[in-house]
UniProtKB/TrEMBL annotation:
Keyword Transcription: no
Domain Thiamine pyrophosphate enzyme N-terminal TPP-binding: 24-136
Ranges where the Thiamine pyrophosphate enzyme TPP-binding domain occurs: 417-493
Name this polypeptide is given: Acetolactate synthase-1/2/3 large subunit
A GO molecular function held by the record: flavin adenine dinucleotide binding
Gene3D superfamilies named in the record: 3.40.50.970, TPP-binding domain
Pfam families reported in the protein's UniProt record: TPP_enzyme_C, TPP_enzyme_M, TPP_enzyme_N
Keyword Mitochondrion in annotation: no
Annotated ranges, domain Thiamine pyrophosphate enzyme central: 219-349
Family: Belongs to the TPP enzyme family.
Domain of life of the native organism: Bacteria
């Protein structure tokens, strides 16, 4: 059942529960809180210090608990669920090594502004600091890579902590929150009037920060003075304002470029899309467009190194406007002429209305510039038609994209295949391009794809990776098989003789996943058809040119 199908059931279930005072354990309260927020899935591994929480999960029928083979995959699944839905991902682990296995996932979610809450069990409060079995100072470890990390020392504090954590994960620049809960706090008794606690706060219309009229006026004047303006799209716009951005770009008739995390924030097929910028751009056109610009309007991005390279290129000859939700994202890395703290969707809508009110008309040279951009895009398009056998990964990735629906969700791991798949996969809808941008964690894509597939059972979800990533996450094929998660995994194997690596097809079958190997490009469409028709996890091993492996191992063009 998809995440949205349970919302009505949750509200109906709470109709009776909210009418009376209730006594419950701390663990039961957490579960009721999550139910009230519409959470339908929890990923993790039960263990001694988190068992009261899992017992409370088993007492209800509205949430599904998915157990994985390694805690890191649980938080990757929560991450993929959150990126594909825009909702908060939930994961849980025991104390000690179970908790510390969440750190890479917290770091990845924090770097990419992904909302999730990670629950960890902890030894009893009177044992903390005494080197008890499986005690770890996870709160101190997690603080640098979370928006907040809580150690709950009183059961009565849980209502406040849960409310704060949920708001923090969702507000401003979204991100992960960790809640560490000792066993005795989970088992402690709590008496609470749920009706009062869950009372809906009155929503104030337009309570988010908005650009002022004077700021819109300055943006308009800077735009009027510019001869070669460009819009740059960052990850902050994904899932928020794609249609509004298309409308604005068409009104202005100026090109749009994107960072890798903003790639799905603007339709890649659109005539105004010039491509990605930075060190992994698919063609030189995106970088060429931004380097020739005399005005950059950056929406929801932060000019990180991967997107901009040498930031000194943003010199005085090039004016920069940066719009983001929080001021700590503004001007972190680049000299900016105008910073605007605003909700991105609100800014785009307000500025669109502003320029319509000013009766703005694109200059003739702007129209000529767009026509030239289209010709240049066609001229320097990437080559994908090769004759080698085994095939080049570039051609294989291109063939895989052709076999997917427009709304298919693509999850990538961090290898050379990530770079090429980012370059060659045109994205048509927001929240369909899942990538570990800041952390670059190998093995991330398999977990993320499972979380996305569980959120959208009817959608095509595919994980594209290379042999090194699958070697790291191979055990999670058993998770996919046990829970009948119908993802398709495409692994590019550079080890043609299979002497130095795993036999992925045999290993997958041994873990309960259907699998096959293909050696020619023309075999990929049939394999994809069989994979998506299986309605269960399916692995496709694609044998590719081993000469690419050296480049992949060295980090490639990144």
């Amino acid at each position: 059942m998809a995440h949205w199908e349970l919302e009505g059931q949750v509200k109906h279930y709470f109709a009776d529960e909210l009418e009376k005072d209730a006594e419950m354990t701390g663990a039961q309260f957490i579960v009721k809180f999550l139910e009230h927020k519409g959470v339908t899935q929890i990923y993790g591994i039960p263990g001694a210090a988190i068992l009261p929480f899992y017992d409370a999960v088993l007492e209800q029928d509205l949430m599904r608990s998915i157990s994985v083979r390694h805690e890191q995959t649980a938080i990757f699944m929560a991450d993929g669920y959150a990126r594909s839905t825009g909702k908060v991902g939930i994961c849980a682990a025991a104390s000690g090594p179970g908790a510390t296995n969440f750190l890479t996932g917290l770091y990845s979610a924090y770097g990419d502004s992904v909302p999730l809450i990670a629950f960890t069990g902890q030894v009893e409060t009177d044992l903390i600091g005494k080197e008890a079995f499986q005690e770890a100072p996870i709160v101190e470890m997690a603080k640098p890579v979370t928006k907040a990390a809580y150690l709950v020392t009183e059961t009565d504090d849980l209502p406040r902590v849960m409310n704060e954590a949920w708001k923090l994960a969702n507000m401003g620049r979204k991100g992960p929150v960790l809640i560490d809960i000792p066993v005795n706090i989970q088992l402690g008794q709590l008496k609470l009037n749920l009706k009062e606690y869950f009372k809906e706060e009155k929503q104030v219309a337009n309570n988010f920060v908005q650009a002022t009229d004077s700021q819109l006026d300055i943006v308009y004047k800077m735009l009027e003075e510019a001869r070669r303006p460009v819009i740059m799209v960052g990850g902050g716009i994904v899932g928020r304002a794609a249609e509004d951005l298309v409308r604005l770009a068409q009104l202005l008739q100026i090109p749009v470029v994107s960072s890798i995390l903003g790639k799905e924030g603007f339709p890649n097929y659109h005539p105004l899309y010039a491509g990605m910028v930075g060190t992994i751009c698919q063609t030189p056109l995106g970088n060429k467009t931004i380097l020739e610009a005399d005005l950059i309007i950056n929406l929801g991005g932060r000019f990180d190194y991967r997107s901009m390279g040498e930031i000194t290129l943003l010199n005085k000859e090039r004016k920069v406007i940066n719009v983001n939700k929080e001021d700590d994202n503004l001007s972190e890395s680049a000299p900016v002429d105008l910073t605007i703290v605003s909700d991105i969707k609100s800014f785009i809508q307000s500025f669109s209305s502003y320029i319509i009110g000013c009766k703005y008309k694109p200059k003739t040279e702007a129209m000529d510039r767009i026509a030239a951009l289209q010709k240049e895009k066609a001229r320097i398009a990437r080559q994908t038609n090769f004759t080698e056998n085994p095939s080049k990964s570039l051609q294989a990735i291109f063939e895989v994209r052709k076999g997917l629906r427009p709304d298919a969700i693509v999850a990538l791991d961090s290898e050379l295949s990530q770079l090429w798949a980012s370059q060659l996969n045109e994205m048509y809808e927001s929240r369909t391009f899942l990538i570990t941008g800041c952390a670059g964690s190998k093995g991330w894509g398999l977990g993320a794809s499972m979380g996305a597939q569980l959120a959208y059972p009817q959608r095509q979800v595919i994980n594209i990776m290379e042999d090194a990533s699958l070697s790291i996450s191979l055990q999670e094929l058993a998770t996919a098989a046990k829970n009948v998660i119908p993802i398709v995994i495409v692994v590019f194997n550079h080890d043609q003789s299979r002497q130095n690596g795993l036999d992925f097809v045999s290993a997958a079958k041994g873990l309960g996943v259907e699998a096959e190997s293909v050696e020619r490009i023309n075999q990929i469409p049939g394999a994809l058809t069989r994979g998506f028709s299986a309605y269960r996890p399916y692995l496709i091993e694609v044998m590719v040119n081993s000469e690419e492996q050296g480049l992949a191992s060295s980090g490639g063009v990144a």
